[in-house]
Amino acid sequence: MPQVSVCIVNWRTRRYLDQCLTSLEAQRKSLALEAIVVDNASGDGSVELVRENYDWVTLIANRENLGHAEGNNQCLEAAQGEHLLLLNPDIVVTPGAIEHLVRFQETRPRSGAVACKLVNPDGTVQHTCRSFPTPDVVIYEALGLSRLFPGSPRWGKYRMTWWNYADEREVDQPMASCLMLRRQTLDEVGRFDPQFPIFFGDVDLCLRIKQAGWEIWFTPEAQMMHYGGASTRQVRRAMIVESHESFVRFYEKHYRGKVPGWKYSLALGLLALGKSARLLGADIGRWLGGRVDAGGTAAL
Fold it and tell me: By C-alpha distance, which of 92, 77, 82, 85 is closest to 18?
């Protein structure tokens, strides 16, 4: 039985997937590791790449794009390991990083999930941990308070702009670009909610893990390289819409009736304004040949 099951959902990232699997293959010499790749009808040669070059990988080739949540659930259903590593295909695994995550969880019995430090190709640190998007932090972000006071633990709460990623600490929601889950935790809280097909599925999962009394950790001692946005930037406008719609569904699931009505309504109104601004930026950028940044695809 493998100690670690690596779960990768792929959509049109053949070049990155090749690098990712090559880096994973090198870890098999020192770690009982399996990899499951779910391809969401990429049509870019990804399926052929895995079949021809990585016969040790379990491949699930979907005939249609089922979304990131369902893809992860397919991976998790097939996984046999005690430690379940969600991994984006545009990540290059650093030697020893997975082993460190395993050791970390095995020494902390209440660690339901742990994330490592992700860096850009130039070595700069990616800010991958955030607090949960309560109405308060949505309002702070929309009013620009986090940009005015990035060193404030209150105003910079959502993106944790006051923190430099140098210390090991509990966090709310690391991005699931690289997130190791404990099987026992997942058995208790359940898998990804399909109503969040691309965005906020990881946020929803982390919130359920916390609500069940498990800990979520970040450790800088394990590090991997992440290109970032390899799939979503191919269809940026559609992803902006999907991100905001998923955010609204997340709010309805977790905050409706649980926070003051005025705060709930104000947060949703600010989200709608943010969606309009990002779509306008995406359209202008397309008209000008991509010279204007639409501000990413995420709702916040």
Answer: 92
Q: Tokens 């269809």 — which residue?
A: 235
- Distance (Å, whole) CA 248 – CA 298: 12
DSSP per position, 23-35: HHHGGGGTS-EEE
Judge whether residue 36 has pLDDT over 80: yes
Q: For residue 201, which of 100, 73, 99, 31 has the smallest C-alpha distance?
A: 73
Place of tokens 């929803």: 204
What is the Cα–Cα distance from 157 to 147, expressed in whole angstroms? 11
Tell me 165's DSSP state.
S
Cβ partners under 8 Å of residue 72, min gap 6:
7, 9, 38, 86, 191, 192, 201
Q: For residue 71, which of 28, 112, 12 has the smallest C-alpha distance?
A: 12
pLDDT in tens, 225-234: 999 865 545 5
Alpha-helical segments (H) within the chain: 14-25, 46-53, 67-78, 97-106, 135-142, 145-148, 183-189, 201-211, 236-254, 261-287
- Helix-helix angle 236-254:261-287, to 10 degrees: 170
Task: Identify the residue whose tokens are 């079949």.
Answer: 51
Cα–Cα distance measured from residue 174 to residue 131, given in angstroms and rounded to the nearest whole number: 9
Residue 41 CB neighbour total at 10 angstroms? 15
What is the helix (H) or strand (E) element at residue 57, kind and residue range?
Answer: none
Q: Do residues 49 and 27 touch, judged by C-beta distance below 8 A?
A: no
The predicted model scores a pTM of: 0.89
Chain-centroid distance of CA 270 in Å reads 23
What is the per-residue pLDDT across 109-162, written as a single tens digit (0 to 9) for each? 999 999 999 999 999 999 999 999 998 888 888 888 988 999 999 999 999 999
